[in-house]
Amino acid sequence: MRLSPLILQVPKSLVSEEIEKKGPPMTLSTAAALAGFIGVALGAFGAHALDGHLSIDGQNWWETATLYLLVHVSTTFAVGASEIGRLRMIGGWVMLGGALLFSATLYAMALGAPRFLGAITPLGGLCLLIGWALVAISARHRKSPGQSQQS
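Structure (tokenized):
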């Protein structure tokens, strides 16, 4: 049985006007892929265009921002691609937001923004921890096929 004709024959009444006008909402995997693109671009920019223009602290902040961003968007992409459970998706979005906040404050300080942004950076780190915890909880409570309870 071919599924593609069935997919194309969705009645218009089932498609909300909001989605029809704006398109579907951005998925977690799409957002993570875009953030990954930005992370690679910023990493390359820091390694080449900013080479010799940043202080030692600035270089360290840039490298840390890039590392955390790329690690967490990769994880977030995998979480989004799994599409398993609401709690896991929430954890993925919180993790992505945390990675962006954490990295953005470090990038900004590396470029000379006021150091008080360093007080905001841990909020991004807290979001990362919360995201990881939600993903872990959702994985722990997920039932395997044919299994009635997870011990």
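The CA atoms of residues 77 and 109 lie 27 Å apart. Confidence is low (pLDDT under 50) at residues 1-8.
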